[in-house]
Amino acid sequence: MSCxxxxxxxxxxxxxxxxxxxxxxxxxxxxxxxxxxxxxxxSEENLEIFSLAQKIAKEAKISAAIIRRSRLLNAKAYxxxxxxxxxxxxxxxxxLSAILVGDIRFFEGLxxxxxxxxxxxxxxxxxxxxxxxxxxxxxxxxxxxxDELIYEAMFDIDTFDIxxxxxxxxxxIAEIVQKSQKKxxxxxxxxxxxxxxLKNYIVRQxxxxxLLKAGAKTTEEFEAAKNDWVAYMLEPxxxxxxxxxxxxxxxxxxxxxxxxxxxxxxxxxxxKNHRKVDAQRGMDGTxxxxxxxxxxxxxxxxxxxxxxxxxxxxxxxxxxAKKYNKNQSLLESIVSGIHHDSQSIALMEKFGTNPKAxxxxxxxxxxxxxxxxxxxxxxxxxxKNQFAELDGSTRALGADTTEFYGADLAAIGGGIRIVQSMxxxxxxxxxxxxxxxxxxxxxxxxxxxxxxxxxxxxxxxxFKMFPPKEQKQLALLLNxxxxxxxNSIHSRFSADDSMPGFMSKANSTYFTINGMNWWNSTQKExxxxxxxxxxxxxxxxxxxxxxxxxxxxLQRYGIQSEDWNIxxxxxxxxxxxxxxLTPRAVEDLPNSVIEGLVLKRENLNRKRKIKSATPDxxxxxxxxxxxxxxxxxxxxxxxxxxxxxxxxxxIMNQGLERGTPKGEAIRTLxxxxxxxxxxxxxxxxxxxxxxKQAGQSxxxxxAQMMIGMTMMGYVSMSLKDILKGKEPLQVFxxxxxxxxxxxxxxxxxxGGFGLYGDFLFGEYNKYGQxxxxxxxxxxxxxxxxxxRVYGGVVAGESDKVIKDTTNLLVRNxxxxxxxxxxxxxxxxxxxxxxxxxxxxxxxxxxxxxxKDSEQEFYLPPSRYAQKx
Length: 868
What we know:
Layout: H1 3-13, H2 20-40, H3 49-86, H4 92-101, H5 113-134, H6 138-143, H7 147-155, H8 167-190, H9 209-213, H10 219-233, E1 250-251, E2 254-255, H11 258-271, H12 299-304, H13 314-324, H14 330-351, H15 355-371, H16 380-390, E3 403-404, E4 407-408, H17 409-424, H18 428-431, H19 434-446, H20 451-462, H21 468-477, H22 482-486, H23 502-513, H24 516-537, H25 548-556, H26 561-567, E5 573-575, E6 578-580, H27 591-602, H28 615-640, H29 646-653, H30 661-669, H31 674-693, H32 698-723, H33 740-752, H34 755-763, H35 771-776, H36 778-795, H37 798-811, H38 822-837, H39 841-853, H40 861-864
Helix pairs in contact: 1-2, 1-3, 2-3, 3-4, 4-16, 5-8, 5-14, 5-21, 5-28, 7-8, 7-13, 8-14, 10-11, 14-15, 16-29, 17-23, 17-30, 19-20, 19-31, 19-32, 24-28, 27-28, 29-31, 31-32, 32-33, 36-37, 37-38
């Protein structure tokens, strides 16, 4: 029997039918392994070809079984997706978009991949943080003081020497982290991966491209940087031999050395392609042959393959991290790994083991469906942009990444945008008072509270304080406490991806000191707590008896009657006299409570019925319920406190990768525009349809929300005026009518542009910029300002150069407009400096403000500012 026949027979026994091309690909992989084994054999080694042949036959059976499993998972995923799409004839494109990024108009339309990715990530990050917090280890771990010991403990926890200062705590942290990693590993395997062990695993290793490139600018310098990295990796006691297990003996018909293998790995690492969650490449940049079977080259197999860099010791791994990823602590690396894995898991849960191939197949299918209906259009570009956000494509550096003086365009562009954020958003917390209105509107449409009760609850929750540790624990249990720990609030304002290093840390620190991290966390935690507490009060009711708006909202996330009958039985968490239902409590439900429902669902489409549910079936159902309920809480919080997700980022990034001229240009253009976009997609749109689905007027719901946001917008801009030394704008004119100018400004501030309004109103006219220049965003405004300075230099107008340079520096100084220091800084320094370089400026400013807005300073700068 030939090898091909052996493979076909092995596949037949595994219940898989392979075509000739698939057989050839499997055979090529196994032959490559044989060649590699022969290549490695020493001259004195007695290589038993027969033994290898038996091993090949065995692996052929394993390969066939893996293919069978993948096909079953993918068939189920395809069936689920197409069932939802076909249930919406004429709206196939929108239905697929709902599955990807959510759409409230569709049945279960908010149970999207995007929302699931966020819920999965916050769940695992939150569980890790909660365990550390419970053992009083979170602060210690965040400090980074024990990182080297934790590396050693995680590398081999059984032989770790605990008799050292800090070793006991390091071991406890290592055990908590590994417990979390094993849970994530189980989720990967459940969705098609095949990962066998975690021994000697520490973390998904980070690699800072800037450090790997070592400042290289020319081709020769890049080659030297690559060679230095390769030489470092090949030093004695650095790498374990397993690193080279996946290295083929030849490549393109030529010998393939360890140096070549590591060199290819370096090239891929500096591109960050290995970070894409749907990539089909290994860290050397090449497609792993084990993933190359037709139709099965997939994310599950990428997750299954052994990691390519295996360090010999925990210390070797720590030394590498300090040298080539020094801007990221161990905790940050672990959280980054959790985030990456969570995105992968959520993608596979919806789209099977090969999400990209499944997506492409479905897009083609709906295109074919559309051809049967002339005039029907499929928004293929929009769908591709949305998928690019979900699979990480837009976070990878593009192939045409541009470099300037050793820094790539992504780093330069991101750094400039961060400086602009820190110079423009000092009053972001006060500008965000409109969150109270959006939060109240959310509670009014998703719970049974009236509009006044919703506002009362929204305001009360804003300032409701538990003891600090208790508050953090509840937030983490409800899937919404991670932002407070990660300081990731900047994502509300721009399409920037998080970038490690000094600038990113400075950005996080800035949003902590300006109060936005506290504000954002408090608002979201309050929403999740309300939703959770409401469900706890309904736990004695049947699903049909749950109040209408709450019941409809549960259904939007796929929680139906049978799920509720399970969910309402979980043990409640009592805190501050209130009971809460938490997602994690689902894990503690006895299997006997779930078995009947699982068995019923499993037998629904089976010809041969099973008599009992397996533990794996029960675990899968528990995880599914945790995911849906967690998404209900996290996505609810992100809707109430409008936070951009993949849908919004797809609009902002247009599917373009980081570091490319187009990618950086679009990110710069869209800076500060995340809020108005999200307010439309998650705020106004969901408000309208939530009202309609509850049998009420959608237009009335929009009007209600806009009135509230306009009121909060006026409160916000009045408080900012007071903090700047100005009298608040008058609401009524002399003839008692509402002042149109005040109303428009309050509406724009509270319900339209929000934080972008800070920039728009501050820059347009104030510094002589056109509306077009202002709309382009702060960075383009800086370019224009620099051009003015340059024009003055060329013209030899020294006074103009000094004036324009001063304006440029004042407007772009990070931290200069923090709400609690701005007035003092203005009156003690900035006003005086501006008057010095531009005599008469303060008087002119006061007159212009009086003329344009009928507004005056209660402390006129011309009289009270410090003069120079």
